[in-house]
Amino acid sequence: HKIYHHLWETNYKHIFLGKGACVSIATAYEDVFLDTFNLEIDLKPTVKISRHNIPPFIPLNNLAEQNNMQTDLRVFLDTLSKHLNAFAGRKQQLKLVKEKHKSVEVMESNVLCSLLVLLFTVPREKTAVLCTLDYTDHTRCLPTRVHLESEGRSFTFIFRLLFEYPKLLLLYKYW
């Protein structure tokens, strides 16, 4: 028999099926639903993940060990949910920046969207600024480090440009 539970304080739901459970984790960014990831978990004789569609770059086995999935499944699912939501949020931010700012060119990004290198041009100045966003904490949507550089230009110049061209500040909405 099936017992269905929706955990309102989290973004995942699960269905118990005898010796196992099916868990769905929904991701969202700025109140927009993005992706759903699923896990089938065997509960007996030991807790283990039997099937899933979690992207391979999410360290699922490490998270299960670090969060002691055997004794506290909820802590493991909460941590996994943070990783998946942060990934989905970073991916959505990159998509929104590309859609809303045509002068922004993505020079480099990795599959986890944890390192982004963007090139944008300041309209009137015709100055190219290279922006590197480093997301060291894979449970967050915001970068851990932001580095701006422009050939032959000082940091003061780059900082001044950001305030002279408010449209560039709109980029920060997605950082």
From TrEMBL:
Per its UniProt record, what Pfam families does this chain match?
CENP-O (PF09496)
InterPro entries, sorted? CENP-O
What GO CC annotations are associated with the protein?
Mis6-Sim4 complex; nucleus
| Family to which this protein belongs | Belongs to the CENP-O/MCM21 family.
Chief location: nucleus
Subcellular localization: Chromosome, Centromere; Nucleus
Protein name per UniProt: Centromere protein O
Keywords (alphabetical) are:
Centromere, Chromosome, Nucleus
